[in-house]
Amino acid sequence: MDHFVIDWGSVQDISGGSGVTIGRLLDRIERRPAAAAWDEIERRLIVEAECWCSAGFAALPRLAELALSAAAEHQGRAMQLAGTIVRSLHRCHQYDDLVRTSAEALTVLHRIAQLRLTADCTGRALVAQLQDTLAFAGYTFWATISLDFTDEHYHLSCPHCAARLAIVIGDYGHYSAIRDYNDGDIHRLPLRPVNPQDLTGIGRWMHDTASADGVTTLAEGLTYLFGRASCSICGSVFNVAEWLEAENSPSQPIDPIAPRTDRST
User: Contact at 8 Å (CB) between 218 and 210?
Assistant: First the structure.
C-alpha cells in the first residue's frame, strides 16, 4: 500500500482543532507505538463512539498502514479506531468525498478484519470484530446495530399500516408487539425464524461466521432477525431484517467502492 499523503492543515479534529496534531501523533506511533498516543488520537477524533470530524475520515489510509505493520496490540488499536470511524458513515455524510478517496484503505482494512475473525475470539470480541468486518465491507447499518440476543429490542413501523412495533429477540421471547407505556408489550405475536439453509447474502455470512465460532446465541438470534414478523394491528407479515434496514439505511459512499454482490466475502 502506497504511503498516503494528506494536507493535515486542511482538516479538523472533533473540537475544531487543526488536523496537523493528528498527523504528528500518527507519525509518532509509526516510529514507536505508544498507548498514550493512541488515547490522544481517540480523544481528538471520537465522541460518544462516533466520528464527526474530517480528520478522522482523512486518517483512514494511515490507520490501514498501521494495521498492516504494527505489533498485534497496536494493530488492534488501529482496527478498533478505523472501525469506529467507518461505522459513523451510517449517520455522518459530511465527509463522503474523503471516504471515496480511501478505497484502497477500506480494502486493506476489510482484509485484515476478515483475518482477525479467524483468530481465537468468542462472545463480545467476536461480535465486535464481525461488526468491523461488516463496516469495512460497506454494511454500515449492520455494523452499528446491537446484536445482543440475550435481550434485544428493535423498533420499526409496520410497512403496511405504519403501526409502531417492537421486535424482541432474546431470553424473554421472540415476538413482535405493541409497546405500551403502562402495560409493556401487548398483542404479542411470535416471530417466524428463517431456516439457516435459506439465508442468503449478508445474513448467511453473519450466521455462518457465528456458527463456525460456536456462538450459538448469536447464530440463533440471527435466524429471527432475518426471519418474518406479523403486525398485530393489520395482520401483515414482513421480513424483519429487510424492513429494518430499509427504514434505517440512508445512502453512504461505500457502495460504489465494494459491490453489494461481493461485499460479504
Answer: yes
Question: Torsion angle, CA of 170/176/129/64, rounded to 10 degrees?
Answer: -160
Look up residue 3 and give its three cell numbers: 504511503
How do residues 80-106 score in pLDDT, each as one tens digit? Answer: 999 999 999 888 888 888 888 888 999
What is the per-residue pLDDT across 184-226, written as a single tens digit (0 to 9) for each?
A: 899 999 999 999 999 998 999 999 999 988 889 999 999 999 9
16: three-class secondary structure by DSSP:
coil
* Alpha-carbon span 230 to 237, nearest angstrom: 4
To the question of pTM greater than 0.85 for the whole model, the response is yes
User: To 10 degrees, the CA torsion angle through 29, 33, 35, 36?
Assistant: -50
E strands, 48-127, in order: 50-51
**Which residue is associated with the grid cell 395482520?**
235
